[in-house]
Design brief:
Elements: H1 8-15, E1 21-24, H2 50-60, E2 70-74, H3 84-91, H4 95-99, E3 103-109, H5 116-124, E4 128-132, H6 152-164, E5 169-175, H7 177-181, H8 183-192, E6 198-202, H9 217-233, H10 241-254, H11 258-263, E7 271-272, E8 277-279, E9 297-300, H12 306-311, H13 317-332, H14 336-339, H15 344-351, H16 360-382
Parallel strand pairs: 1-2, 1-7, 2-3, 3-4, 4-5, 5-6
Antiparallel strand pairs: 7-8, 8-9
Helix pairs in contact: 9-16
Length: about 375
Amino acid sequence: MRSRPSSWRARYQQRFAAPQTVVVQPTTWCNLDCRYCYLPFRKLKHQMPVEVAEALAQEVAQFGDSGHPVGIVWHGGEPLAVGQQKFETLLSPFEGLRRVGRVHHYVQTNATLLTETWCELLAAYRVRVGVSIDGPAALNAERVDLRGKPAFDRILCGIARLREHGIPFSVISVVGALGMAMPEELLEFLASLGGHSVGFNIEEIEGVNTDRQPPTAVQAEEFWRRVLTWSREHPGAPPAREVERLAEYLQLIRCGQRAEWERRRLDPIPTVSWKGDVVLLSPELADTAAPEYGDFMAGNILEQPLAEILRGAHRLGYVRDFLTGLGRCEAECEFFDFCRGAQAANRFFENGSLQSTETNYCRVSRQALVTALSTLATKETAA
């Protein structure tokens, strides 16, 4: 375990790097009403003024050039709900940075609003697309519109348009109890969509999604065991994000490059709301009422430069509590070397404290993956 610096500033700098991702909320509104959604204001039609995008672009231009573009992630509500003209207006302030390779745009969308002209716009700005779809119709049944009607067919139409225009996309699937029980069907369907990768977000308790029973660690270990088996049997299928991360970790350890893995620090992931408010650590903490943490507000980019907000991150109570929790994780958890610590939002929504350690997210998304691989390896060795 590494030694703990004495000051909060040093502790923050030991754990966090300069941001490589900025999450941006162009609107609070979403045209869907998914039953597991965590967003509290998804039925309000707030939109980001162009002044916020302009201020953010100016701030990102001041970031040191790391050699890798900063990811500007447009994430909801439903980003495409602002309309093409408004979306292009929000992209425009970043255009000089994009053209010289300093930023790259990403959009996470439910794909239901994609049209020919939307695809042309996304292609023109080289926006990388992530599509949210939970699997075949039966597994996607929780994703409904504001009238309660299934969105499945509209999502498929949007994906078809992306493919027709040659726009690469990834897929993110929220996995609930039903999906956990049928991973092979889920994987086969997602592979058939033509995306370049898939990611699994096992359903979590967060935001306003607090009443549903999340999957258990036992269910998750079986899910990951079958995912790993299927993936090995289908080497040409799009890779699973979580499996790739574990494979990268193991490869570095086996090749004697542990130091490279350990040098990697966390991204503070500044999240900029439609009105310029900045939240750090987890996008899911945005719009969350938490008086003890000042509602997680770190500042507002219309009133304070983002660089200054980041320089003062170590002074924020919730960041200090998160650093304390990370230190406890490192000292106590056998999975820390791979996991690097639970997500801040999960600590808060599950345990009520960012100083806490293990969460159900840890158990089902990180620990269960490792134990599933270990179980498979043990069985193969015994055979």
